[in-house]
Amino acid sequence: MPALANKTYFNYGGQGPLPSPSLAAISYAFATIQELGPFSDNVWPYVNRTVSGLRQRLAAWFGVDAARVAFTENVTSGCVLPLWGLPWQAGDELLVSDAEHYGVVAALEELARRHQLRITSLAVADLASDATTTAAVVGQRLEAALTSRTRLVVLSHLLWNTGQLMPIAAVAAQLAGHPRHPWLLVDGAQSLGSVPVAEAAAAADIYACTGHKWCCGPEGLGAVALSERLLAESSPTLIGWRTLAHDGPGAGGYHQDARRFEVATSCTPLFAGLNHSLQLLEAEGEAEARLLAIRERSVQLWEGLQRLAGVRTLLEVPPPAGLVSFTMAGPTGDPMDPAAIVKKLGDQGTWLRTLESPACIRACTHLVSTADEVERLLAQLIQLSVGWKKAL
Q1: Cα–chain-centroid distance for residue 195?
Q2: Cis status, amide bond into 358, omega within 30 of 0
Q3: Bridge partners of 97?
Q4: Of 88, 148, 288, 302, which is most buried, counting CB atoms within 10 Å of its CB?
Q5: With contact defined as beta carbons under 8 Å apart, do 62 and 207 qualify?
Q6: Angle at CA 143, nearest 5°, toward 137 and 146?
Q7: How far is the first Cα of the chain from the last one, in angstroms, to the nearest whole number?
Q8: Where are the domains of the chain?
């Protein structure tokens, strides 16, 4: 990973660095397409093999049939395109967790405005305990928040701000017992490549992911797993030649599978790059084994933060995956500016990020994160705290 050569990187939840073999796969795909002749009869078998190969690989990761997988540009389009094709009725309620990304929330607000829907809230951002307690509380709060008008529940698999893991399969089972069986939309931006996703993706109606975060693939390519019932009920919203089952004038007719939510031309070399990144991850072991390696470093960081004066982690227990969010306070108890801390760390070659809601610092550990890097970050945070004291 060339991007890791001159820095200590903890921003995998924003964008994962692209491995050199994946970059080489992208370059090779570009060259191959040019050699075969772009938009020639010779190029289509290669393009189709590249796209279908990645579709099959992602279907295995999702635990679903390949016919349920559609390609998108990113998580947001994976959420929005099938969502806007559902048969909404005025007065339907959208139950949205209070820890969703603002990009998805903005799309939901516009959907509600256009169709006269009502948005209600499911509180999960405050959940800071262990998995068993979290699952029980989510179930209780969900039961209390559901009404006879609830038509959709929106919940991330791994919360992008706190790092808490949501019990998606249990939520899906609970919704199946509701009289209206609300659809379940899951933002998987922080889960694909970091935690096992098959059980959750197979249970959700819309499970949208991207390849450029924890998968360490190229930006501009994502995927969404769709349930059979959503495929039966939702119509495409953006329509292009890839939406159609057949080419040609008057051919008409959408694909009956998830491809109806694909629109038009995509960059084929990106498929080759993401496919190679996924293969590299698979070579590191099964999903559970990879998660254990990720957690070894995140737990090391979380435990180290517990020993630093003025630091508070958002989770009260070691993180279930690789996201570690925390705040820092000065000796008087006044909060230290997260942006200033991240800036100073960046000046030292260590890269984290700030979040606005809640205002905090987020560090992400991945398979390639080392124990020495975690200790270096902890030492830098101590130095910043000491410097803050001297400034006072």
Answers
A1: 10
A2: yes
A3: 122
A4: 302
A5: yes
A6: 135
A7: 40
A8: 25-281, 286-391
Q: Is the pTM of this model over 0.85?
A: yes
Q: What CATH architecture does domain 25-281 belong to?
A: 3-Layer(aba) Sandwich (3.40)
What percentage of the chain exceeds 90 in pLDDT? Answer: 89
Q: pLDDT tens digits, residue range 186-207?
A: 999 999 999 999 999 999 999 9
What does the pLDDT look like over 56-74, one tens digit per residue? Answer: 999 999 999 999 999 999 9
- 3-state SS, the chain, equals CHHHCCCEECCCCCCCCCCHHHHHHHHHHHHHHHHHCCCCCCHHHHHHHHHHHHHHHHHHHHCCCHHHEEEECCHHHHHHHHHCCCCCCCCCEEEEECCCCHHHHHHHHHHHHHHCCEEEEECCCCCCCCHHHHHHHHHHHHHHHCCCCEEEEEEECECCCCCCECCHHHHHHHHHCCCCCCEEEEECCCCCCCCCCHHHHHHCCEEEEECCCCCCCCCCCEEEEECHHHHHHCCCCCCCCCCECCCCCCCCCECCCHHHHCCCCCCHHHHHHHHHHHHHHHCCCCHHHHHHHHHHHHHHHHHHHHCCCCEEECCCCCCCCCEEEEEEECCCCCECCHHHHHHHHHHCCEECEEEECCEEEEEECCCCCCHHHHHHHHHHHHHHHHHHHHHC
**Tokens read off for 211:** 């390849």
Specify burial of residue 57 (Cβ count, 10 A radius: 0-12, 13-18, 19+).
Answer: middle
pLDDT digits (tens, 9 = 90+) for 10-22: 999 999 999 999 9
Q: What span, in angstroms and rounded, lies between the C-alpha atoms of 323 and 163?
A: 5
φ and ψ at residue 368, rounded to 5 degrees:
-90, -5
Q: Does CATH place domain 286-391 in 3.40.640.10?
A: no
Rounded to 5 degrees, what are φ and ψ at 234?
Answer: -100, 140
